[in-house]
Design brief:
By secondary structure, the protein is mostly helical. It has three helices and no strands. The chain is rod-shaped and about 90 Å long.
């Protein structure tokens, strides 16, 4: 009986180890996603705060507020 229980436990441990074999891969994918999102946010911030885009946004808001209803 001891040998049977030991064999079953060994098989269970092997299955658990095999199931979590690429656990580090998920962490690296999240890290790359965060880096890409931050890079996109920086580029978007630079575009929106540039002189020409800022002037256009202000003109758009001014026209929207001055519109008659």
């Amino acid at each position: 009986m001891y040998k049977a229980v030991r064999a079953r436990m060994r098989a269970l441990v092997c299955r658990v180890r095999a199931a979590r074999g690429d656990a580090g891969m998920v962490t690296s994918e999240y890290a790359m996603g965060i880096v890409a999102a931050v890079a996109f946010a920086v580029v978007l911030y630079k575009v929106v705060t540039s002189g020409e885009v800022s002037e256009e946004l202000q003109a758009l808001v001014k026209r929207a507020l001055d519109a008659r209803m």
